[in-house]
Amino acid sequence: MSDTTEAGLNEEWVRPRPGRTGYRNDLLLALALAIGTTISLVLFRATGTFSDTPGWQSTLWIVAVTMPLALRRRWPEAVAVVSSLAFAAAYVFETGEFLFSQICLFVAIYSVGAWGRNRKVATIVRAVIVSGMLAWVFWQLVYYSAVQDYLPELPREGSLSPYLAYGLINIITNLLYFGGAWFFGDSAYRSARAKALLEQRTVELAAERERTKQQAVALERLRIARELHDVVAHHVSVMGVQAGAARRVLERDPAQASRSLSAIEQNARSAVDELHLLLGTLRSEQPEPGAAPAHQSSSTRGIEQLPELVADAEAAGLPVTLSVIGEARGVPGGVSLSLFRVAQEALTNARKHGGGGARADLRVRYLAEAVELEVSDTGVGASARGGAARATNSASGSGLGHIGMRERVAAVGGRIEIGPRARGGYLVRAQFPIAPALVSTSPINGEPASADND
Q1: Which ranges in 253-332 belong to alpha helices (H)?
Q2: Secondary-structure class of domain 299-437 per CATH
Q3: pLDDT tens digits, residue range 102-150?
Q4: d(Cα 41, Cα 54) in Å, to the nearest integer?
Q5: d(CA 314, CA 310)
Q6: Which of 175, 185, 322, 354 has the lowest CB atom count within 10 Å?
Q7: Cα distance between residue 79 and residue 70, in whole Å
Q8: Which Gene3D superfamilies does the entry link to (predicted)?
Q9: In the chain, where does the domain assigned CATH 3.30.565.10 lie?
């Protein structure tokens, strides 16, 4: 997840309400605190504290200070206000007790921080409650400092009198009390938000893994389809041409028919061998250390096999001239395979669409930082077939073969041009980047220059 998404979640996230189990637990908590408050109240009354308060008043106070906590996660702000007023009523109306009522107030203020859906409102409500309580404590300490009958055992004289120390202890205790409720409430909210963020990240990562998996499957299917097209289309096309030739000359020229059948057999064996190699590569789950990637090693074909490709094309009835321009040098396996497959597809198309009497030229040029393949033919394809399908589809590269050529060239960082020539025929020109050739110069003493020389 990006930082922007995370920041957006931090600003907009609202803690979801608990389920029925959460509300049931809150009700049980409120009942438990009500029972504890009742027992504590009885004990306080036994000590003489607020012992004159009517029973019904004490009962109403117990309900007011404890039972709203059953809704502390649904309406935390309202519960905190009610609990605070009930807590103050214990002093104003001289009823209640001072143990469980403080626990109830702590839980109420904590719940505002932990479950408040509007953070600004939660902050304001807590600030008002805490400020009011601290102001009340401070006012009581100041007021009773002048009342000598209140805690007479604590003298008021001196810079740090016992009464002043008592007052400071009360203030520090209340600061820790309210500060703890505030801090732990906010911590619970942050923890819930972090958990939600982690869950969202987990969901997004799972979705991303699924998308990656689907993309990998799609790319693998595309690679398999491209390999099958390149392997099968060429050989089957040659076999179809040779079979037709054998059928036409079978009676009048058995020797030629036999040569055509031999070519069919050779192409069939070649196709089967390449298919076996392709399937073996696809079945290999654990490639050997140092082995080339599957898209580079799925065929033994490469630039060295171009003469064989030319021979197959000529045997199928398409005259081809092979030219190598420049000094030949090593070509990476992936580039070599792609160059061979592009040449194979171009010659197959020339044979299928070029028409009778078509010729093809296959040129390989070694440039400074690239190797260029050019396959042109003199066919009249579209007009000879009585339509413009070839010219239209080929120019845009919409055929499966042309798509495969473009993908192969793009996969190794090259570029390709496909389209009809102005003077007739068709042209496929692809350029593949390779390592630049080292230019050797001879120094004055006649020794060959080293690549390390300056």
Answers
A1: 254-283, 294-297, 306-315
A2: alpha beta
A3: 999 999 999 999 999 999 999 999 999 999 999 999 998 888 888 878 8
A4: 12
A5: 6
A6: 175
A7: 9
A8: 1.20.5.1930, Histidine kinase-like ATPase, C-terminal domain
A9: 299-437
